């Protein structure tokens, strides 16, 4: 099953290498030493849980990847691994026992009035080598940036920010929700140390544009738009129509996820990586 997933991810050579029987005990030890599993953490802040569903509803793709290739050492929804010392998980002190992580996935924006979330996010930054803004709410705030309080069941919660406004973010995987294929490829790239593949996500960590208005202002109004229609095809709520070769934004349908901006080839253009992926 693991070999099938690696073929799905385009890692046929590695899958064939794994399929070969190991010759002796010493070679097995060497493989085990090199293939140390990355430690993954996951926290959910303020969002709709769509990104978590993108994981759990696509286990046919991700199950063996998450089981055999990584260790989930901290999480709220993916696994019951809040801590390792047996402390009751309802105890706020459990955050102080947060383990070290190679990669931490953070879903949702952070509410400034939620002291628990603020503390957990800052502690996570201390413990994780890489912090990933997982999904549009974490990356740029998405629709939560326009919340103004007064809503049940937490009317005092009124200020929601992308996590990059509170802690340093190393990479971002935008999406509302995130594609399961991108999740799998990003984790495999981390395992293989393929920073070239991760480079666009590293670049996106500093991008907080999240509205079709940003696309209009920074791309269309500057005559950078080529009329390719990528923004319209990427929009997950069909809020963009191409009118006479230019995007027309329907603000009533826009959820401020920023996908149109991050997918626009004129907002960033990693030509070397594109040529590598296409084999050119």
The overall average pLDDT, rounded, is 75
- Counted up, domains total 2
CATH architecture classification of the largest domain: 3-Layer(aba) Sandwich
Q: Please identify the structural class as seen in this structure.
A: alpha/beta
> How many β strands by DSSP?
9
Gap between N and C termini: 30 Å
User: Unreliable segments (pLDDT under 50, ≥5 consecutive)?
Assistant: 1-16, 18-34, 83-90
**How are helices and strands ordered from N to C?**
HHHEHHEEEHEHEEHHHHEEHH
> How much strand content do the residues show?
5-15%
What strand line-up does the widest sheet have? 2-1-3-5-7
Q: Might you state the CATH topology name of the largest domain?
A: Rossmann fold
- Name the shape in a single word: globular
> So what's the CATH class of the largest domain?
Alpha Beta
Q: Which percent bin holds the helix content?
A: 25-40%
The largest sheet is:
5 strands, parallel
Radius of gyration: 20 Å
Helix count? 13
* CATH homologous superfamily identity of the largest domain: NADH:ubiquinone oxidoreductase-like, 20kDa subunit
Mind explaining what this structure looks like?
With 280 residues, the chain is α/β, with parallel strands linked by helices. Helices cover 39% and strands 14% of the residues. It is built from 13 helices and nine strands. The protein has helices at 2-8, 12-19, 25-34, 50-56, 59-68, 115-127, 136-140, 180-192, 195-204, 212-220, 230-234, 259-263, 271-278; strands spanning 39-44, 71-74, 101-107, 110-111, 128-134, 160-161, 171-173, 240-243, 246-249. 33% of the residues are buried. The model is unreliable at 1-16, 18-34 and 83-90 (pLDDT under 50).
């Amino acid at each position: 099953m693991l070999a099938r997933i690696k073929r799905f991810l385009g890692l046929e050579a590695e899958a064939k290498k794994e399929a070969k029987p190991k010759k002796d005990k010493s070679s097995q030890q060497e493989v085990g030493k090199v293939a140390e599993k990355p430690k993954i953490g996951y926290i959910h802040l303020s969002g709709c849980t769509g990104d978590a569903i993108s994981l759990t509803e696509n286990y046919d793709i991700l199950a063996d990847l998450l089981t055999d290739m990584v260790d989930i050492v901290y999480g709220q929804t993916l696994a019951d691994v809040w801590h390792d010392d047996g402390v009751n998980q309802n105890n706020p002190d459990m955050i102080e026992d947060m383990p070290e992580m190679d990669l931490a996935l953070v879903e949702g924006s952070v509410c400034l009035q939620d002291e628990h979330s603020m503390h957990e996010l800052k502690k996570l930054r201390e413990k994780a080598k890489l912090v990933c803004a997982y999904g549009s709410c974490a990356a740029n705030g998405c629709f939560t940036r326009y919340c103004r309080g007064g809503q049940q069941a937490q009317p005092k919660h009124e200020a929601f920010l992308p996590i990059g406004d509170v802690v340093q973010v190393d990479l971002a995987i935008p999406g509302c929700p995130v594609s399961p294929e991108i999740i799998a490829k990003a984790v495999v790239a981390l395992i293989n140390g393929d920073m070239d593949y991760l480079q666009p996500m590293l670049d996106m960590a500093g991008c907080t544009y999240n509205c079709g208005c940003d696309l209009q202002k920074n791309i269309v109004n500057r005559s950078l738009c080529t009329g390719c229609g990528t923004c319209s095809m990427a929009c997950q709520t069909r809020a963009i129509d191409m009118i006479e070769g230019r995007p027309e934004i329907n603000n009533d349908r826009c959820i401020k996820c920023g996908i149109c901006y991050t997918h626009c080839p004129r907002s960033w253009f990693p030509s070397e990586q594109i040529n590598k992926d296409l084999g050119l």
